[in-house]
Amino acid sequence: xxxxxxxxxxDLSDGETFDAxxxxxxxxxxxxxxxxxxEGDELVHDPGLRLSQHGSEQWMGQTLNHDPAYWRADAARExxxxxxxxxxxxxxxxxxxxxxxxxxxKGGYFLGRDDVQFHRPATPGTLLAVTSTVVDTRTSSxxxxxxxxxxxxxxxxxxxxxxxxxxxxTNMIPRRxxxxxxxxxxxxQDAGGPTLPxxxxxxxxxxxxxxxxxxxxxxxxxxxxxxRHERGRTMDDQLVAGLPLATLNTARQHHNRDEMADSPSGDxxxxxxxxxxxxxxxxxxxxxxxxxxxxADERFHDFVTLGDTVYGFTRVLDCDPDAGPExxxxxxxxxxxxxxxxxxxYSGRRTALIQRDT
Length: 358
Ligand SMILES: CC(C)(COP(=O)(O)OP(=O)(O)OC[C@H]1O[C@@H](n2cnc3c(N)ncnc32)[C@H](O)[C@@H]1OP(=O)(O)O)[C@@H](O)C(=O)NCCC(=O)NCCSC(=O)C[C@H](O)C(=O)O
Known about the structure:
Blueprint: H1 15-24, E1 42-45, H2 53-63, H3 73-78, H4 88-103, E2 110-118, E3 128-139, E4 146-157, E5 163-174, E6 200-201, H5 208-221, E7 224-234, H6 237-246, H7 257-260, H8 272-284, E8 289-300, E9 309-320, E10 328-338, E11 344-355
Parallel strand pairs: 6-7
Antiparallel strand pairs: 1-3, 2-5, 2-8, 3-4, 4-5, 7-9, 8-11, 9-10, 10-11
Bound molecules: ligand LIB3CWND.
Ligand LIB3CWND is lined by residues 100, 104, 109-112, 140-143, 148, 170-172, 184, 186-187, 249, 251, 253, 269, 271-272, 299-303.
Region (Disordered): 175-195
Protein name: Acyl dehydratase
GO molecular function: lyase activity
């Protein structure tokens, strides 16, 4: 009788034998299908992650978020930070990265995020504690193989218990069993041509007063304050696979080319937080940012894959001179990331504190 614990019992040099072995082996699964999630469930995400200066600088460097307030003590003090904090995009990506193994590792699409709030800055060395609550589950009417799940997530400092960031995110999650639906209409477009303002204005500078002036002028002229950013960033392996893995994001979409070969993208795709951070970096390079405040209605419209180039477009929606400290006012933007074919891949509303002219 063959001893199946004998390392030599299976001839691995014989491809046919190994194929047959793999075909019969059960796959030990990772992640959860849609059916796992029930409204009200709370998930405590285990891996934890210590935010690091290196991780933050690597994120900033690769995504073109070159803001010295997040790496130089004098620049941080100038922006009223007690210590040099990690970059907020890195913080957000790390908080979400930790959740992926429990929430979205099975694949599916990161559709959007809402109510992103930064409660306090986080410094390098902070150990994260992250929990999520399932707030909604529903069947996708257009894609019977998927369900749609929304979670609320909170990232805290594990040592002090202080809340750092909170948000609500929605993903399409593969179902173990396809649902019976009417098949729905996929990506239907509205009929009729586009309605656009006659004039698009751009602010004269990067300070709060420049945005406010442009918005006031636009209101008088039935114009919009909307502009493109010159920089683009082509997605390479470091961005697509390296950055998500550095945040412990285990979603196969970002690092398993073999699995992704049969997917609609045909290849690995960028982590939504990387795409978003690049578009925001383009926008921030044209403004005197004081602080990030909140984000709303973030959507991922299309996937971004290796070799795509991410550009940015910004529309100014509102200016509030009374929000924020004396030296800054709040500006609400809509940012759009688009690719080399001018296809939007991300959009979101962002309120940031922008420095007044000094
Ligand atoms: C996902 C897409 C292929 C969908 O395209 P399309 O069918 O054209 O879009 P619809 O607008 O019809 O949406 C389909 C259904 O999803 C619901 N939906 C869409 N957005 C939201 C939202 N923000 N909140 C709630 N629900 C939403 C619609 O209501 C539709 O529902 P139903 O009719 O019942 O089916 C396309 O959008 C696409 O390719 N998007 C890009 C996705 C992407 O690349 N994301 C980022 C990369 S993946 C990632 O980062 C993974 C991450 O690591 C993680 O783990 O989450």
